[in-house]
Specification:
Blueprint (H helix, E strand, L loop, with lengths): L1 E5 L3 H9 L7 E6 L3 E3 L4 H7 L4 E3 H4 L5 E5 L2 E5 L4 E4 L4 E3 L2 E4 L3 E3 L7 H4 L6 H13 L10 E5 L3 H21 L5 E6 L10 H14 L2 E4 L2 E6 L2 E5 L5 E5 L2 E4 L3 E3 L3 E2 L11 E2 L12 E3 L4 E2 L12 H19 L13 E5 L5 E7 L3 E6 H18 L2
Parallel strand pairs: 1-2, 1-9, 2-5, 6-19, 9-21, 11-12, 11-17, 12-13, 20-22
Antiparallel strand pairs: 3-4, 6-7, 7-8, 10-18, 14-15, 15-16, 23-24, 24-25
Length: 379
């Protein structure tokens, strides 16, 4: 059975590395890059130049999965074809779509042209280079960084940058960078619990980060941004660097007459993570719209993408053994936010539905442990 896995992010890699050689199951993983990126650590790459990638092919040893580096141009579910940008066309019998997301700029004037994203290693490297340049004697531009978006990515990035700024300020005897977070919602980290949010705000204040909640970024230029406050008034903020982390949308690469795309271009799936109307097509990670019966949408996080990928691998092997498929039952093991250096905050699940709240070095250790578990799962 010819099976393609599209994308080597958290979902795709979880699916590929959870597979075992299975009779008549022929699997090819396709990604445009030769390495897997630990996206949950891109903020560390941006602030400290941390290495956050690992070659894909060695991770596939023993799985029976082959790898091909290529870029997807279009996925036609009705024709059962995947078209590559080099002109080749690949057919499939089973398909796993895990192509991730792109940045959603929401049509904000000048934002796409003037803001740095934080979706790839190249974005992190560009920001790392700028921060280092801002602490050189010949740098004469603005030393303010405006971060649009006070969600998980934005807060982890700004606290790591604040910590790096303190290090470089002490090393070179120069003023620290000015850091500003602009968040349209009334609070930062709107999807986390109140205690975790309050601890995060406390850390931001200690770092001297200016946080503008209830403010919409309405325009970006090479010299800064315009924001609109809760009262409708506007304010100009000069900036040497603008970073946008304020939203994502599914990659617009998939077409099929029976698909009715959900919020953010995501593809609705059934309880087995199969695209509605296409029982041979699994959709996982940021591309999938997963709403359990009577529940809330499953968030687009690395841990949930990993769960979905492993389940999809199990169901592909079950199909070949003519066994019943296993439905997806999402669960959250914990939630940790990096807050710069050895500081973090979050919670971990305990038996009986209890949660253990952790802050500081203990939370940092748990976050590192979860990352270590992910690395080990790929092996």
């Amino acid at each position: 059975m010819k099976t393609l896995i599209l994308g080597a992010g958290y979902g795709g890699m979880a699916a590929a590395t959870a597979l075992k050689p299975t009779p008549n199951l022929d699997v090819l993983l396709i990604d445009r890059l030769p390495y897997h990126t630990y996206y949950t650590r891109l903020h560390e790459a941006a602030a400290h130049g941390t290495a956050v990638t690992e070659p894909i092919e060695p991770l596939l040893s023993g799985t029976g999965v082959e790898f091909e580096q290529a870029e997807i141009a279009e996925v036609d579910l009705d024709a059962r074809e995947v078209r590559l940008k080099d002109g080749r066309v690949m057919d499939f019998q089973k398909l796993v779509i895990s192509l991730g997301s792109t940045t959603n700029f929401y049509g904000i004037e000048g934002l796409k042209e003037n803001a740095t994203e934080l979706k790839e290693v190249v974005h992190a490297e560009a920001l790392f280079d700028w921060v280092n340049r801002a602490f050189t004697p010949d740098y004469s531009g603005s030393r303010t960084i405006v971060i649009g978006g006070g969600g998980l990515t934005g807060i982890e990035l700004v606290t790591e940058l604040a910590q790096r700024s303190e290090e470089l300020s002490y090393k070179f005897g120069m003023p620290k960078l000015k850091l500003v977070v602009v968040e349209a919602a009334p609070v930062i980290l709107p999807i986390v619990n109140e205690k975790l949010r309050a601890k995060s705000m406390e850390i931001l204040q200690d770092y001297g980060v200016e946080v503008l909640t209830g403010h919409k970024l309405t325009k970006a230029t090479p010299d800064g941004v315009t924001v609109q406050g809760p009262d409708g008034g506007t304010r100009e903020i000069g900036a040497g660097k603008i970073v946008w982390t304020g939203g994502i949308k599914a990659r617009d690469l998939v077409k099929g007459e029976m698909i009715k795309f959900g919020v953010g271009g995501r593809i609705p799936v059934d309880r087995y993570l199969r695209a509605q109307g296409y029982p041979d097509v699994f959709v996982i990670g940021d591309m999938a719209s997963i709403i359990p019966e009577g529940g809330k949408p499953v968030p687009s996080t690395a841990q949930h993408a990993g769960q979905q990928g492993r389940l999809t691998a199990e169901n592909l092997m079950r199909f070949m053994r003519q066994e019943d498929l296993v439905p997806y039952e999402p669960y959250t093991q914990g939630e940790f936010i990096s807050l710069g250096g050895l500081m973090a905050a979050g919670w971990m699940g305990l038996p009986g539905g209890y949660r253990l709240a952790l802050t500081g070095a203990a939370a940092h250790a748990m976050k590192r442990a979860s990352e270590w578990r992910w690395r080990q799962s790929l092996r």
